[in-house]
Amino acid sequence: MRPYLIGIAGGSGSGKTSFIRALRSEFNEEQLCVLSQDDYYLPRDQQHRDHNDEFNFDLPKSFHKKDFYHDVKKLLEGDTVTRLEYTFNNPDAQPKTLEFKSAPVIILEGLFVFHYKKLQPLFDLKVFLYAKENLKIIRRIHRDQRDRGYPIDDVLYKYQYHVLPSYERYILPYKDEADIVINNNRDDFRDFQRGLSVLSGFIRSKLEENK
Questions:
Q1: What is the pLDDT of residues 111-121, one digit of tens each?
Q2: Which of 14, 33, 93, 188 could disulfide-link 131, Cβ–Cβ 3.0 to 4.6 Å?
Q3: How far, in Å, CA of 155 to CA of 176, rounded?
């Protein structure tokens, strides 16, 4: 049977990474495959520059769209995909060779997975993670300073001129098309956990159908 394809999108800071990590921990690789758009960024020298000559990594054209689509098709056909890990332009990080094995349920996650027209007819289920702007920018500041070593002025500039405009144009419009919207606005993450439980249960039901 063709794998069941789930798309998970949302703005930067909405909690996609934490959600995917928690979801992945509940299943093994023979049950669930997760392919992240983050591993398909174009090299830095191919990225668009804004009016201040700053690199803008928050555009649909910031990614290898053809490679991403090609690999999705391979997974849906039951093949294995290998990809060199993207290290977010960190020269000190040693990229790993990632291997993605096809599974009965495949998740595609990323900022623009719903925006790419070739991918849209392939999805069996669309999930949108939503969070308020003030929370997203706080989470973005913490992540970019902790994990990537970006200075605060750089983080704020990119959020104002790159992240937010791109979110409003290329990501938020697809919220109304999603089958499930998970709000991630509470400090106790109660809605986040509910959404995780619902999707986990749904995936288990799909796995049972494939037995």
A1: 999 999 999 99
A2: 14
A3: 28
Distance (Å, whole) CA 130 – CA 11? 7
- 101: domain CATH number is 3.40.50.300
Copy the structure tokens of residue 203: 């995936």
Q: Which residues lie closer than 8 Å to 62 by C-beta, 6 or more apart?
A: 41, 42, 47, 48, 56
Which residue matches tokens 């960190």? 90
Domain count, the chain: 1
Candidates 107, 100, 104; CA nearest to 85 is 100
> Structural domain of residue 143, as residue ranges?
4-209
Q: What integer pLDDT is reported at residue 91 of this predicted model?
A: 67
Cα atoms in the 13 Å half-sphere on the side-chain side of 172: 10
In angstroms, what CA-CA distances link 87 with 5, 6, 25, 94, 128?
A: 26, 25, 22, 8, 25
Residues 6+ apart with CB under 8 A from 125: 4, 5, 6, 7, 179, 180, 202
33-86 pLDDT, tens per residue? 999 999 999 988 899 999 999 999 999 999 999 999 999 999 999 999 999 888
